[in-house]
Predict the 3D structure of the following.
Amino acid sequence: MDLASSSGRALPRGSGAAEERRAEEPPGLPPGCELPPTRQTARWVMRPLAFLEELRARHGDVFTIRLAREPPWVMVSDPELLKRVFQAPADVLHAGEGKRVLEPILGLNSLLLLDGERHMTHRKLLLPSFHGDRVKLHEAEMRAVTEAEIARRPAGVAEPAAVWMRAIALEVIVRAVFGVSGEQRRARMRDALHELNVPANADEARAPAFLRARERVDELVYEEIARHREDPDLRRRDDVLSLLLQSRYEDGAPMADVEVRDELMTLLVAGHETTATTLAWALERLARAPAAMARTVAEAEAGGGPYTDAVIRETLRMRPALPMVARVVKQPFELGRWTIQPGTIVAPSILLVHHRADVYPEPGEFRPERFLERKPGTYTWLPFGGGVRRCIGAGFALLQMRAMLSTLLARARVRVVDPEPEPLRTRAVTLTPGNGAVVAIEPLT
Ligand code: HEM
C-alpha cells in the first residue's frame, strides 16, 4: 500500500500552463506566487516550508499558490481565520470533494469522501470505535507488534525507519481495525495490501494491475466481514470491524457490507501512512537531539510518560504528516478581507501555523518542553485538523505512537549516521523525511 503514488496529482503538466490556468481562475483571489505552476509544484515538493514561509513573509497569512493540475489553493495560517474555516457550514466548504482521487480505492461510502448530512451520519457510526476506552484495548497489541518488528531489524545497520514504521502501522491496522486473526490470514491480507497502490489518476484507476490488486483485497475484506458476522462471540470482540457490524443507523438498520468495506479501507488509508511517517519524523528529530532523547529513554521502561507525549506533540508541530487540508469552496466565503469564490480550494496550512514565531518562539527548534508547559491550542496546533472533520483516529494515533516509541527505546538505542537534519519533502499529501529517516538501531542486551 503506497499512498504516495497519488503524487501524480501534483506533478508538472508541462510549461505554458500558467497562462491557460489564469484565464479559468475564479476572480478576486488573494495575491500569491507568480511563478508558473510547474515551478511552484517543484518548490512545494522539494522545499515546502521555505516556499510557504517566503510567501507568507511577502503576502501575510492569506495567499494563493497554483500547482499543476490543481485549482488555485488559498493558503491560510492565521488562527482566527482558521477557526472560521473549520467552523464553516457544511454547504459552504466541502472537505470530501477535494479527495475524489481516492474514490477508486475507498469507494462511494467513505467518511473521508462524504460531505454534508451523509458525512455526519457516517461519522456517528464510526466515532464509538475510537473512544478512549476502546482504543486503550489495543495498546498491548501495538507494543507486541512493535517488539516483533524490532527483533527482525538487523542490528547496527542504517536504514530508513519510515519503511519499518509502515510495516508496524500496517500490522496494527490489520489486527486492531480489520480484526484479522491467525498468522496465515494476516499474512494473506498483508500481501494483498502491499500490492494495492492509490492510483494517481483515472487512467491508473482503470489499469488491470490496480483492478486485480483491488479485487484481491476486496475478496479478503469481504471474507473477513462474513467471518465476523458469523462469529457468535462478535459482541466480545474489540476490533473496529466487530464494532462497525454492531453499529446501527438512527432507524435501526445495520451498515451494508459495502459500507463496512469502504470504511475499513478509509481507516487503513487515513491511519497507516500518517502514523508511520510521524514516528519516522520523531526518530529523525530525537536522534539529533541528545538531551530530548535521554529524557524520552528515561520514560521508556515505564511505557512512556509526559515527556514522551510532549515529544510526539512537538514532532507533530514541526513535521505534521499532513501539512495542509483542503476545502472546496461551494458558495462565496468571507475570509478576512477576501471573498473567496466557488471553484477555489481554501487550504488551512497546518505547517505554516505551526511555524508562527508569535505562538512558538524559535519555531525551527525542536523543543518538546513547549508542550510540558502548556496544552496545545485548538487553532494553533492542528496536526489532526479541526471542526467536524477532525481526525477520528487522533486518540488511536497518539496512543500508538507512544506505545511504539517507548517500546522501541526500552529495547534499543537509536543512532543517526548523518547528523544533518533530513530535508522535508511533500510526497502526495504527506510531509515526509527526504531520506525516510535513516537510523541504525542497536538492541540492548
Ligand atoms: C499521526 C497520525 C495521523 C494524522 C497526522 C492524521 C491527520 C488527519 C487530519 C489532518 C485529518 C483531517 C482531514 C481534513 O480535514 O480534510 C484526518 C481525518 C481523518 N483521519 Fe486521521 N490522522 C492520523 C491518524 C489516523 C488514524 C490512526 C486513523 C484511523 C485508524 C485516522 C482516521 C481518519 C479519518 C477516518 C478521517 C476523516 C474524518 C472525517 O472526515 O470526518 N487517522 N486525519
